[in-house]
Amino acid sequence: MCGRFGLFAELGDLAGHFDFGPEPLQGSYLPRWNIPPTSSILTVLNNGDARAAGMIRWGLTPSRSRNSRSAPRLLFNARSETIDQRPIFRNAFASRRCLVPANGFYEWQAGTGRAKTPQWVSHRDGDPVAFAGIWYAAQPDDQEQGSCVIITTAANDLLAPIHDRMPVILPPECFDLWLSDQAEPDALLDLLSSRDWPEMSVRDVSTAVNRVANDGPHLIDADDPAGSTQRLFL
């Protein structure tokens, strides 16, 4: 799954990397090292002949859940294996796909007892990556600028010792296909398969990330006294 990630690159650098236009964002972009579901996050969409970026809510609350007496159910991940079949995701997958930029994401590795060690998964050179996502327009009673979910797939060899799921990472050469209005469903589904990441790294980080209120570069600092020794998987 993907339940926490970070995006802290400068907006201008992100615009160059993901090739989105200079139009003002719908919402404010702030670098963050500890982004949980329900946050407003940067997404990149197809805007006709160009790409556009905006801030939208990470997580979808189905209309049936909103009307329930119990706590509303929040969907922030969609499984790649069923995204073209489940009614709540099917239409968005067909016509409303997006890129979710990230500098990396967190996963928690089980250890002895109940304690879990947070891991930071990122490009070893620090480059941002793109999660595959789908988005939804804002509802009439929604104060946000729409919402999105991140697509997950089976973990590859790098992540399998930590968790059985991982976010779909799209290489830059696949951005146009993912965002294209003309893409065939089979070609899109092929992009969602698990793949190796020879350029990615995983390392232990501070347990301070466990609290969503904590934010800042110290969360992923390998020299943080609350963290652990860096481990690279090449």
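(ticket continues) Second input and output from the same batch:
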Amino acid sequence: MMTASDDAVPGRRELQGPTVLVLEEEAGVRELIVEILELHEFRVLPARDHGEAERVSAAHAGPLDLLITAAGSGAGRRLEFLWSARPETRVLYLSSWLEDAPPARIAGAILAKPFTVDGLVRKVWEVLGGATG
């Protein structure tokens, strides 16, 4: 799993793909998403809570192409730090409770849990506006 300080680790392969901030409280889910995305050449910045996500975002000098986070009540309010500092960042919400159509209050794409490896990667590329890789 890559952290913001891993940039300078000797021998670590530099990933060249888009940068994704993964904000997920459940360690196992977060680690799985990070591993999947890194295997598909994404640069991943993991965060376990909103405070850590804000610190990681502030410390990252480059672009932040995508945020992956859980959907839920108040999700937009908790992400104010991102909208003000990085309005260009796209959002992919993970949810086990949303049906096909997201509620109007959620601005961003939705990926239903459980998801497959291919489903996650395909959705990330879709949200980023690129090919399915």
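Agent notes: The helical segments are 27-39, 50-59, 75-78, 80-85, 117-128. Strands lie at 19-23, 43-47, 66-70, 90-95, 109-112. Closing as not reproducible unless the customer responds.
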